[in-house]
């Protein structure tokens, strides 16, 4: 058959178009019946998933259910178009070009043929190709000018259903099967719910250790928060001390080590007292170079007592030098 068509010997035949249109219509009805029965089973499974807390898996199953609903709807439309072309097969045969009122039906069947489970539609598309030419066929296959039925194109498209539709399906199934389920917060705006697909599952509904049920093994004791670091004392040398921080020793400034001078002896103390007394009387004390022996003279008793307390010259000289060094 393909060879004859390649060589150009195959021609359009209405005797082949009409029976395949009728068989496609019957095939579409059978597929819709199977899908409808399958949807009933899917709804029960989705309700059980919601009851078990497996919401993410239920979302995926609902997308499949919505896709089956879309397919059933599209198949119903295609079945109507097949019946329409079957009734107007004589008009198709008599006209060289596609009639305007049949253009959408023909383009829709050609576009949907490779996107369905109906092999008879492929034969119908081939007969329309032989009837109206390759250019008409290619434009209809690519939906140039959007001549195909918009509803069929949407229902048989590959875009996933919106998040809004998924949530509505889940809510309706939960109500039908009496399942306690609340609509989750998807963090989507109203516009995003209607235009965006359902977010991909993150796995929050998958339990730990689902096979053994030993999820308690993976539980850990709560980790205490880390203790805050100890306070750091900031020393300002110019600021007065107004308090202290417990457990914090502020840094101390370095202290210079001072070596005290040796304590004066008893003789040095007596010599110093004598010098201070003379200075207080306004007398000048000079170091004698030599003390010669002089005859004893009578002196007042007070002066004799003072001379008795005088220290030797060498001791006085030595003491004066040390006192001068201390004063410096």
Automatic annotation (TrEMBL):
Keywords: Coiled coil. Residues 283-328 are annotated as: Disordered. The lineage of its organism: Eukaryota, Sar, Stramenopiles, Ochrophyta, Pelagophyceae. Residues 21-59 form a coiled coil. Transmembrane segments: none annotated. It comes from the Eukaryota. Pfam families: Ist1. The keyword Coiled coil applies. GO terms for biological process: protein transport. Belongs to the IST1 family. Residues 293-308 have a biased composition (Acidic residues). This is IST1 homolog. The keyword Glycoprotein does not apply.
């Amino acid at each position: 058959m393909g060879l004859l068509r390649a060589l150009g010997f195959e021609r359009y035949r209405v005797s082949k178009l009409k029976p395949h249109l009728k068989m496609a219509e019957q095939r579409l009805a059978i597929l819709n019946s199977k899908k409808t029965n399958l949807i009933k089973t899917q709804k029960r499974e989705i309700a059980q998933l919601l009851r078990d807390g497996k919401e993410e898996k239920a979302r995926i199953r609902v997308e499949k259910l919505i896709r089956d609903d879309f397919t059933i709807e599209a198949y119903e439309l295609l079945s109507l178009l097949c019946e329409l072309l079957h009734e107007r097969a004589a008009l198709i045969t008599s006209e060289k070009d596609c009639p305007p009122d049949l253009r959408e039906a023909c383009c829709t069947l050609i576009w949907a043929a490779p996107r369905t489970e109906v092999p008879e539609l492929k034969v119908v598309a081939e007969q329309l190709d032989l009837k109206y030419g390759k250019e008409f066929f290619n434009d209809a296959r690519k939906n140039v000018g959007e001549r195909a039925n918009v509803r069929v194109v949407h229902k048989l498209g590959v875009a996933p259903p919106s998040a809004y539709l998924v949530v509505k399906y889940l809510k309706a199934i939960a109500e039908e099967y009496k399942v306690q389920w609340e609509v989750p917060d998807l963090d989507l705006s109203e516009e995003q719910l209607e235009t965006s697909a359902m977010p991909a599952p993150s796995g929050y509904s998958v339990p730990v250790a689902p096979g053994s049920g030993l999820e308690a093994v993976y539980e850990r004791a709560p980790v205490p928060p880390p203790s805050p670091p100890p306070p750091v004392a900031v020393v300002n040398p110019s600021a007065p001390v107004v308090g202290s921080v417990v457990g914090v020793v502020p840094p101390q400034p370095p202290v210079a080590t001072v070596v005290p001078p040796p304590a004066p002896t008893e003789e040095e103390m007596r010599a110093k007292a004598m010098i201070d007394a003379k200075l207080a009387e306004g007398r000048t004390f000079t170091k004698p170079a030599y003390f010669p022996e002089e005859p004893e003279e009578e002196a007042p008793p007070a002066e004799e007592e003072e001379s008795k307390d005088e220290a030797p010259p060498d001791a006085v000289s030595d003491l004066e030098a040390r006192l001068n060094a201390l004063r410096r």
